[in-house]
Amino acid sequence: MHFNGQSSVALNGDLATGIAYCMAHHLTIEDGRQKFMVATIRYHDKFVKLNGQCFFSGRKLCW
């Protein structure tokens, strides 16, 4: 499960860049035992506007 927090976007014509903060909760099973891990992460995103619609054009994961 991911919880997305504050985000910011900078527009530049048909292009944009953004930063999004997230807390990711992961539940896995290793050797028959449940493991729970929480990660705080930051995404550096790129967007492009095509035919009036915005799309992701790139995403970099930063720990």
Automatic annotation (TrEMBL):
Transmembrane segments: none annotated. This is SnoaL-like domain-containing protein. It comes from the Bacteria. Pfam families: SnoaL_4 (PF13577). It comes from Pedobacter heparinus (strain ATCC 13125 / DSM 2366 / CIP 104194 / JCM 7457 / NBRC 12017 / NCIMB 9290 / NRRL B-14731 / HIM 762-3). Residues 1-54 form the SnoaL-like domain.
